Every structure is written in C-alpha cells, then in structure tokens.
Amino acid sequence: MQGKLIDGKAIAERVKKEVECDIEALASRGIKPGLAAVLIGDDPASHIYVNGKAKACSQMGIVSEVIKRPAETTAEELHRLIGELNERKDMHGILIQSPLPKHLDELEAVLNVNPLKDVDGFHPVNVGYMLLGSPIFLPCTPYGIVRLLDETDIDPKGKKVVILGRGNIVGKPLAAILMQKWDGCNATVTVCHTGTVDIAAETSRADIVVAAMGKPKFLTADMIKEGAVVIDVGVNRVPDAGAPKGYTICGDVDFEACRQKASWITPVPGGVGPMTIAMLLHNTVRAAMLQSD
Question: Is 97 annotated in the active site?
C-alpha cells in the first residue's frame, strides 16, 4: 500500500473560492475586509510568515497592513498599538505574530485584542466559546486540518484520533474541536506529549494520527497501523550542507516510510500549511461580516 496524498494546496484553493463569494457580498455593501499583522522584532521566520499572509490577502482583495515595531518595543507601546487597531473600522482582523520578544507576554497581548477581531482564535473568550461548542472563530491550523479531512471524505466520527503535541496553537484546540458533536468531528481523541509513557502504543491503535510535536520525522512507520490517516503539522529546518540554503524542510513524520502503510497522508510542504493561510482568510472575512452586522 502507498498512501494517497492529501493535497492541501488544492483544498485551500477551494476554500478561497468560497471566501471570494463572501468578499463579493461584502463589496456589494461597500465593505472591504482588512487584516492587520503586528510584527515585533526581527525574527526571520516571522517575517516570512507575515509576508506570506499579506501576499495571500492582497491576492484575495483583502486589505493587509503589516505593522513592524523594533524588538525593544515595550508592553505599554504594544498594548497601545493594539488598542488603536481595535478602534479602526477598516481593520477587521488583528493578529499578533508569534513569537514575541522574551520581555513581552503573549497572553497579555492577546487579551488586549477585541475578541471579534481575534482572527487567530487565541483570545480566552474565543477559546471558551470553542470549548462550549459555539465558536466565533476557530484557530486556523486546527480548523484547516478538520477541513482537510472533510474535503477528503475522511469522517472522524467514532474514530480513534491520536494527536502528538499539546500546544495551544494546534494540539489542545484540535482535540477540543474533534471531540465536539459536530459533523466532521465526534471522534475519540487522545493527546500524547512528553509525559506519555508509551506513545507508540497509542499511535499504533489510531485511525487518524496528527503529528504536531516539532520534532523532525518523529512519527515512524512502526508507530502506525495499516491504513491509518496521517496528518503532518510539523515544519522543521534540518541542516543539510548539500542543500542550496544549507538546510532542508521536513515534517514531524517520516514521510516516505509512513506512506507505505498509511491510507492517506499530508506532505510537507503542501499539506497543512496552505490550509492555515486559507482559514485565516476565512476568519478575516467572517470578522468583517460579524462587525458589519
């Protein structure tokens, strides 16, 4: 068996087509969605991510504003900036690019964002509504994973899902979403982490495995069962002297080996990544609709 690829790029394009229809509906009312990205410091990866998001916005007709501030920015200055963005009628979504410099508290920053502009879905208000099953915004990467499964006709209902990683961006919210009674969810979810005694014992029984640990090629073929669905969230830079940039990109899954046993598998890149951007666009347009109503 060789697992079929879940094409995140193609599915993301379908999501964007839906978003375009909502953008046209807003335009008929004289509304143009806007997204403000706040970037503090000079982290190279953060600059790449923010520029990628801005490019995707411009391609869709969403106004994008990247606000850069030096690493020395104080908490007071950051909170004042967020307050100004909360008041702006032309900016419907606000995202605070992570990681922030060490002297700034990320939770404090998020707490200052108007929950109706929190298109990342990180504000405790939005996290609470998600846990209660009545979300305003769902976090982009978990939302994208659920949409990937749905578009591939993989129904988690009644299935055993194992998530590797308990981070606030992917692991925890994905578990909260997949356990809901919603269509496309309703799974039995296990979250594994550094305190799990025997991770392989859990993954080997799973119908769906989601790897989000940030460890290159952590999930190996002997850890999954025949026919499992494998979703790779990891994006890791691995030193490679022979590569043009001096490194190669790989996920948290030993892709070639696991593909021989999996029924479906996501590649890195081209799997979950494009979906994260697509769901950010979706959330931004939703924010514009909510605020205009």
Answer: yes
